[in-house]
Amino acid sequence: MEPLPILYSFRRCPYAMRARMAVVREGFRVELREVVLRDRPEHMMEISPKGTVPVLQLLDGTVIEESLEIMQHVLDWELSEEEANWAERNDGEFKHHLDRYKYPNRYEGVEEDEHRALASVYLSDLNTRLGQQPSFSNALSDALFPFVRQFANHDRTWFDAQPWPHLHAWLEACLASEAFGRCMVKVKPWVSGQDRLLFPQAEGTL
Ligand SMILES: N[C@@H](CCC(=O)N[C@@H](CS)C(=O)NCC(=O)O)C(=O)O
Question: In terms of pTM, does the model score above 0.90?
Fold first, then answer.
């Protein structure tokens, strides 16, 4: 059996989604191990004690435990200054407000509406940028859209009512892509000793 890199993942995690999107786009084959976050596999904790997904273990044993670094490795992608700036805003400012908008009860003294408004500063900037040329690379789109998807799904009616036509069209295209369909394949949690699950499941590059 051909040895394969191992990707620990969690289907609904936006960080794991961006890593799986890179794998699908590139036709980079991995063994996919779906993780239950409250019961993380021992092997994953051994190779990456910080305990977050995604984690990619390469054939030479190298472990990559940051989603953007996994994307960079898989896609051989060097972020431009502009791309690095968007990724930083997404993972910093936007994720901060997104978490507080989605789960206000998990944080002290948090007003859901205030964080929705603060998250919208980023979204509005993204809308403006997406209306300009040239458009984002697939790599950057894939790094960002899983987070925007989470925001949109929290209150779809509100999101759809915002004056963000470029953002709406971009998100729609990302969600409708064949790559995203393959990225979101439903899999059972991995158990040690089971047959390995190849990912992506269909051959080829999109
Ligand atoms: N900076 C990390 C963040 C990954 C992350 O926070 N993943 C979440 C799931 S969406 C997680 O594993 N949370 C578990 C925990 O923090 O204990 C990356 O980019 O890979």
Answer: yes
**Does the Cβ of 37 fall within 6 Å of ligand 1?**
yes
Task: Specify the ligand 1 atom closest to the Cα of 12.
Answer: 10
| Together in a domain, 151 and 95 | yes
Q: Quick one: 88 and 157 in the same domain?
A: yes
Average pLDDT score over residue span 102-125 = 92
User: What stretches of 4-162 show up as alpha helix (H) in DSSP?
Assistant: 14-26, 42-47, 67-75, 81-89, 95-102, 112-130, 138-154, 156-160
* High-pLDDT (> 90) share of the chain, %: 89
Percent of the chain with pLDDT over 70: 98
Question: Does the Cβ of 99 fall within 6 Å of ligand 1?
Answer: no
Out of 53, 74, 150, mutate this one to test ligand 1's pocket (max ligand atoms within 8 Å of CB): namely 53
